[in-house]
Amino acid sequence: MGWITAWEPSSTGSTSMMGPLEVFTSTILSLSVSGGDDYKIKDTLIIRTVQFHHENLWIVSASDDQTIRIWNWQSRTCISVLTGHNHYVMCASFHPKEDIVVSASLDQTVHVWDIGSLKKKAGPPSDDILRFSQMNTNLFGGVDAVVKYVLEGHYRGVNWASFHPTLPFIVFRADDRQVKLWRMNDTKAWEVDTLRGHMNNVSCFMLCYGIPVFALLPIVNTERDATQRETQVLPSRRPGSLTLYQSPKSLSYTPSENAVLLCSDVEGGSYELGDMQEPKKGLGGSTVFVAMNRFVVLDKTSNQVPVKNLKNELVKKSALPIATDAIFYAGTGNLLCRSEDTVFIFDPQQRLVISDLQTPFIKYVVWSNDMESVALLSKHVIVIASKKLVHQCTLHETIRVKSGAWDENGIFIW
């Protein structure tokens, strides 16, 4: 058991607590609601989340008693109990338009519940008392709510799930450091993508539509100080900027210095350097770190690569022997330079071309974890080479190659 607390807003803008409400005999009369783990009675269980229905007089709650409960806040009655999870239910929420509920549990599953029958039977509040007394629950929900889909794939507990506000997607996160995206229709649901890269449990996410996420969110460093606060390094959008939708085209990061390089097409090619101080700006076609405290900028007009320090001061400048339109990281101190039909590794300190390789026009460069192999991705071709640009194989695709990654065994997946 747990407690739901009702709050009553006043005309002055303040709120008063109407009192804690025991879950199984809830008395909710409010425009806002909260659930907690304040243990008002013996052997209580935590209420993880609560949410109002967008249309009906309902609230859905998720609890450590392994159930999802739907309440009528006007009649102060529980009208349906959804059972089927076998561990704590961490969250539950209504769909913004359809008669379905999504729930996430530490049993490593996400359930989608069809509550269409419950809505069809919705009547006067007095009917909810009778309906609760007649409720027949089984392994997969009550007679008014049944499991539509069971979504699996995480190998640790799932602690949040949410519907997309306009599209038929469900996104959920888990303690296995992954975020999964599922699509659904009237008859089935299937996994679309798995997002990886977090180094610890994923504690929150945000669904965004209409504009790219990077136009909304600041870039922050992942290191936390002693107070466990995250610090903004470099914003990718500035209020009132005329270049709100100007996409950053590359990002380079050096963890030892907490410094970020953001490159975009603004002003014909420019970069910003953020290192916990005031951001520093400059012009350049592309930028990349080549050492802990050194980065290189491509000057297309002179076909040179100035080397700068973290104060944005020029250290030295080297001329490229081949006309170059983009530079990529190629290990400490080296650059992978792209021309129209060739890539070459260039050492800006010695001003020396180490090796080269003829390729189609390359869009992306993906190094293996040990930096022994590199995948060069063009629109329809993948070229695999060694760190010295010794050709190993070429793969042709009939559809566009969008991305790729190396696994821990040295296998390239695209």
Question: Any overview of this molecule?
Answer:
- A hairpin with a 5-residue loop joins β8 and β9.
- It is built from 2 helices and 37 strands.
- The chain has helices at 116-120, 125-133, and strands spanning 3-9, 15-22, 32-36, 47-52, 58-63, 67-72, 77-83, 89-94, 100-105, 110-114, 137-138, 141-142, 146-151, 158-163, 169-174, 179-184, 189-195, 219-220, 232-234, 248-254, 259-264, 270-274, 280-283, 287-291, 294-297, 304-309, 314-319, 326-329, 335-338, 342-347, 352-358, 364-367, 373-377, 381-386, 391-396, 405-406, 412-413.
- With 414 residues, the protein is mainly beta.
- A 4-stranded antiparallel beta sheet has the order 4-5-6-7.
- The two termini are 48 Å apart.
- It folds into 3 domains: 3-195, Methylamine Dehydrogenase, Chain H (7 Propeller); 229-358, YVTN repeat-like/Quinoprotein amine dehydrogenase (Methylamine Dehydrogenase, Chain H), CATH 2.130.10.10; 362-414, no CATH class.
- The radius of gyration is 28 Å and the shape is elongated.
- Oligomeric complex that consists of at least the alpha, beta, beta', gamma, delta, epsilon and zeta subunits.
- Pfam families: B-prop_COPA_B_2nd (PF04053), WD40 (PF00400).
Task: Give a quick precis of the structure.
It contains 2 helices and 37 strands. The protein has 414 residues and is mainly β. It has 3 domains: 3-195, Methylamine Dehydrogenase, Chain H, CATH 2.130.10; 229-358, 7 Propeller (Methylamine Dehydrogenase, Chain H); 362-414, no CATH class.
Q: Notable features of this structure?
A:
elongated, 3 domains, Beta-prop_COPA/B_2nd, four-stranded antiparallel beta sheet, transport, membrane, Methylamine Dehydrogenase, Chain H, 37 strands, mainly beta, 414 residues, protein transport, single chain
